[in-house]
Structures are given as C-alpha cells and as structure tokens.
Specification:
The protein is mainly alpha-helical. It has 22 helices and 13 strands. It is 48% helix and 11% strand. It starts with a helix and ends with a helix. It binds one RNA strand through helix 1, strand 1, helix 3, helix 8 and strand 9.
RNA sequence: GGGCCCGUAGCUUAGUCAGGCAGAGCGACGGACUCUUAAUCCGUAGGCCGGGGGUUCAAAUCCCUUCGGGCCCGCCA
C-alpha cells in the first residue's frame, strides 16, 4: 500500500502535534495539581485509611475481634485486638457510630494435650474449652483460665470491648437460626467449600458438630438427622453412644461456617484476622461466600495482619512454644509502649519483637514522641501525632521518668524502693504519683532480671572493687581530693558534680590544687585528662571503666557513701 | 502444585492504591554548650528503592520475570 507523500507528511505532523500537546497538557496539569498535591502529601495513618474506606459503605460499624483461648494469649494475639481498637477509635474520631466487640471462642474443642498441660488432659481432648477443667483449679473452666489475664491486660491497654463468649452465645440460643439454616442448606455450603477451597467434602460431613451426651466431645460425632421444629439434632458418636442434642448449646457450627454465621448474627462490619485465614481458599474466602449466599449478609471489611516474630526465634505461636504472654510483657514495659509497637507498623508488615536491647530503644522512641507531643513541639508532624494519639491507653497515668534513667536509678538503689524514691526526688522529678513510679520501677527491675543486655547492667560494689588497683597515682589523688571536697560541701546536684570533676583541669581550682598537693608537685606541672577522672569514678564504684552519665549518676548516691568509697580507693594498696 | 504478604540508608521504616526531585527516626561521624561513654542543641555522611526486562516524555510506584524472607491452601491469632 502506498500513500502519497503529502499524506504521510500530514500524518507525521498530526502525530507530533498530538504528542506535543499531551506533553503540554501534562506539564500544565502538574503545575496545577502537582503543587496542590504537595500540600496534601501528608501520610495518613493506616487506621484512618481503613476507617475512611469503610465509612464509604456505611456510617455505622461493628468492629469485631476474636481469639481462641486454647493457651496463653500472647503478644501476637494482641496485635489483632490493638489493630481492631485502632480502627474503632479512628471511626469514632470521624464521627461514626461504632462498637468494638471481642469474641472468645470458648466453645472450640481442645485440640491436643499442649506441652504445658499434664498428661491427664488427654481425656479432655475434643471437648469444648468451656467444658474442660481449669489447669490451675481456680477458674471456672479452661477457657476462663487463659481469658482472665488477657482481659485484664486489655484493660491495661485501654481497650474495653464488649466481650462475648462463644459457649454462652450457643447456650443462650443465639445460634439456633443459623444452625437450622446451615443444616437445611448443607449441600449448598458443601458446594461452596469444595469450589473455593478445592477440597472434597466427605459424604457424611455436617456443618454442625453435636457434643456427645456421654463423652462430652464434639470432634467424634456424626449428625444422623435433625428436627427443625423441635430444634434438635440426632447423632452417633465414635465413643459408641448415640443420642439427640438441642440446637441450644448442644453443639457448635464448624469453624468455616461458625465465622460467617457470627458475622450475620452480630452484624460484624470490620474484622482483623491473621494472614492464615486470608489466603485464597482460606476461611475468609469461604466465609465471604457463605455469609452472602447462605446468611444473606455482607462480609466484614478485612484487615489482614502479619505475625509478630520473637527475636530470632521465629513466629510467635502457642503450639511451637515460642511465646511471650501479654501479661509477661506488661510486667516489663508500660502498656502504651506495646500499643505503640503495633500502631506504628502497618498491619501487613511483620513485627520483629525483641525484649532485649531493641525494647529499650522502642521505649526510648516512644518517650521521645510523648515528650514532643506534650510540649507541642512544632517539629512533630501530623503523622507522628496520630501515632501517639492511637498509642495512648486512656485512663492511665504514667510516670514522666524515662525508662532508661530508671534503669540506672534502680541499679544504684539496688532495687530498694525507698532509695529509688529519694533518688528520683533528688533528680528533680515529681514524686507525687508514687504508684506510677513504683510501676515503672517494677517494670525496670523485671526487665533487668529477664531481658537486659550486659552493657545496660552494672552493680554498685559492696566494697572497693579490685579493679581499683589499676588506677594511676593521679587518679587516686583525684579520688581523695574529690572526697574531701564533697565532704565539705552541702548537697550537690548532678550539674554541680559534673562541674566539679571538670574543675580538676583548671589551674587555680580547689580540686586542681588538692590533687597537685597530694602528688607533691606544682599545680603548673599537673596535667589532667577528664577522661581518666571519669574512669576513676566508675572503677571505684562499679569496678568497670564506664557507666551512666557521671554527674547525675553521682548525685544519685548518698554523699557519705561517695566520700567513704573514694577515700578508700585513694589509699588502696593491692 | 496453587495462592497471599513483605523486600527502600547500618537498623526501624514513610512514600506504592492514584507514575512527577526518595523522606523521616534511631545509630554512626563531626561540632557546640567550661559539659565524659548513654543529657541537650547544631551539622555531615550514608540509597543501582532485592535483581533483570518492559510500558512511558517520566517508574520505588504500573506490567512481566527472577531471587530472598515469612506464611496459607488440613477447624492453630
């Protein structure tokens, strides 16, 4: 095909001009929208993004979380609840009508004898957790045993959901209609499960698991019939027994049906869940179809979250025993810091949790943020402000003393609380709220015991440490002179101590003169490096060459102790 | 076999949906405050945005592919 030359030229011109035009339009667009966009570029917190999205669907929301209390509820589980709470708070902040609920799956069967259980629990495997005896004997049942400390921890985290217990919901009959529907539409449900999960559903499968009247287990029964009017289900159990149970508390829907049924019964509109449920063919996928097609309700907006990894040991999991329970953690770190850990990370990212030194940095970072927020520091961006707001555990009064500083105070005081209070006061902190100080002190001492890395630890030696033998004559002379001056002075502040030490290198200062005299040389001949002086101080008190910031470290001690210790060190003979 | 999430400075990460100069915090380094090693303030360095290819005037961002990490598809958040 041959086009005339002029046709080709005009085509070319048209194409070029269109191209140039698009370039022009784009740059024009950028000058207008680009600048506008810059002002809008502030990062929005993930919880607000979620709230914004769900608000477009409806203005009324039920945020649900649910955990099976089959073992110690750990920080990994906590992510679910804090995530839900963040979304919930954000919804409230945006003026939505919202409620936060927590569903404890107390009617799930005990899967196996976990490592922390005695062998005798073998006979309870297969029974609902609410019907298994409590391991310690003090709680109403097995589920309660793990639930109680968890709910207490939630309280401390400032999370106060309405609590539902699955066993009570079943026993009160809330599930009856859902059970009837599931039994009647058994084939449809089975079809969905096969289509979505790709698994074959066995011939005698039922969405409902009756609890055997004889052995009390719900994992070994088969449904043999049911009566919708009488609201009963017939079954046979592999224990040999056969019988009839009520739909009111006589059994439980299988998990993949229970979950969507619950969405419908309670009207759940947002729910975070672990990524295990999220993959295609997983329980969220089947649940979505079941709730839409069987229960005629919309599935909740999902918030899929990643696992929390413990140090280098891998994912936190009750079954592998890699677990730090929330209550354990709350003994070590203030609740708001735990919230902060979760709030600052997007749900789909793993969290590396290490209770050792990294925890110290985490606390530090949080405290820095808190201070900036309280002082209305202009360098604090909206995004960080939002993180702080969402990390706050309302109704909790926390000490203003930095965790790191308490690490030192606590060790100087050798854990004695009266002593700690004195030092706190001397360091210029408020001591009015003794409770909050005590709480922090307890956190810190637990942390030192369990997780602190060696470099953070020191111990004030009972007697002059052997290492003093390594000190030079100059260092010893300095300690002796320092003791004299401290003894003659009144109460000294951290700053005073600091300046005092530095005065050693100034010709004409009292300390400088005393050192020279003690060494029997002229002050002009005295050469002092402050580094050596600090080293002498740490050696005399701790037996090591370094320690916490010297000024306020010294001011933490009783004067008498310092005078005596430095004198002894000054005349120490190995 | 099929699917999901993550990979950006030494570390923790924002930015990815909607393509438009890759930003912070910590740490490190340098300096200041008569002020040390873990206070404060100021400053500096540090990046083939995991790799490769493609689309585009323009890619961390979209598409394909590949590697690494973590998971799921059995009723374990």
């Amino acid at each position: 095909m041959v086009f005339s030359f002029s046709f080709r030229v005009s085509c070319f011109i048209i194409i070029i001009s269109l191209y140039l035009k698009s370039l022009y339009l784009k740059s024009l667009y950028l000058t207008i929208v680009g600048n506008f966009g810059e002002k809008m570029a502030d990062t929005i917190h993930w919880a607000d993004v979620i709230a914004e999205e769900t608000l477009q669907k409806s203005s009324k929301h039920l945020v649900a979380t649910g955990i099976t209390p089959s073992g110690h509820i750990h920080i990994g589980n906590m992510r679910e609840v804090v995530t839900a709470d963040a979304a919930y708070r954000s919804l409230l902040d945006k003026g939505a009508e919202a409620e936060l609920i927590y569903i404890a799956d107390t009617y799930d069967p005990l899967r196996k004898v976990y490592p922390f259980l005695p062998e005798s629990y073998a006979e309870h495997v297969g029974k609902p957790l609410s019907e298994v005896p409590c391991p310690c004997g003090d709680c109403a049942n097995y589920a309660e045993h793990f639930l109680k400390p968890f709910l207490a921890a939630l309280q401390r985290l400032g999370i106060t959901p309405k609590v539902y217990k699955a066993d009570e919901m079943y026993k009160e009959g809330l599930y009856i209609e859902a059970i009837k529907t599931a039994l009647l539409k058994r084939d449809e449900i089975a079809k969905i499960l096969e289509e979505v999960s790709g698994k074959t559903v066995v011939e005698d499968w039922s969405p409902f698991n009756p609890i055997c009247n004889e052995c009390g287990k719900l994992t070994m029964t088969k449904v043999t019939g049911f009566d919708v009017d009488a609201e009963t289900v017939d079954y046979s159990c592999s224990c040999g027994h056969a019988g009839t149970v009520s739909m009111k508390g006589g059994g439980k829907l299988t998990w993949r049906v229970d979950w969507p049924a619950r969405w419908g019964i309670l009207g759940v509109s947002i729910e975070p869940f672990g990524k295990d449920h999220a993959s295609s063919g997983g329980s969220y996928a089947t649940g979505t179809r079941i709730v839409e097609e069987i229960y005629e309700h919309q599935p909740p907006s999902p918030i899929v979250y990643e696992w929390i990894m413990l140090g280098k040991k891998g994912a936190m999991s009750s079954s592998t025993g890699v677990v730090v329970s929330i209550s354990d953690m709350l003994e070590v770190v203030p609740p708001e810091v735990l919230r902060y850990l979760i709030i600052r990370t997007k749900p789909e990212k793993h969290i590396q949790f290490d209770p050792g030194q990294p925890l110290l940095s985490l606390v530090d970072e949080y405290e820095r943020l808190r201070t900036k927020f309280q002082e209305e520091d202009p360098s604090l961006g909206d995004f960080d402000k939002r993180i702080y707001e969402l990390s706050r555990a309302t109704g909790i009064c926390q000490s203003e003393i930095p965790f790191k500083q308490m690490v030192t105070i606590s060790q100087v005081a050798r854990g004695d609380f009266e002593q700690i209070l004195k030092i706190v006061k001397r360091s210029g902190f408020e001591t009015e709220n003794e409770m909050s100080i005590r709480e922090l002190a307890e956190n810190v001492s637990k942390w030192l015991d369990l997780y602190a890395p060696p470099f953070a630890k020191f111990s004030v030696k009972e007697n002059v440490p052997l290492q003093v033998a390594t000190l030079s004559d100059l260092q010893k002379a300095f300690l002796g002179a320092l003791a004299d001056i401290i003894e003659a002075s009144g109460e000294l502040t951290g700053e005073n101590y600091h300046l005092l030490v530095y005065s050693a290198k100034e010709a004409g200062s009292e300390l400088n003169g005393r050192i020279a005299a003690s060494l029997g040389i002229e002050p002009e001949a005295l050469e002092v490096n402050p580094k050596d002086l600090f080293k002498a101080i740490y050696t005399a008190i701790l037996g090591q060459g370094s320690g916490p910031k010297a000024g306020w470290f010294l001011s933490s001690f009783e004067k008498e102790f310092l005078v005596e210790r430095f004198r002894e060190a000054a005349v120490y003979q190995s």
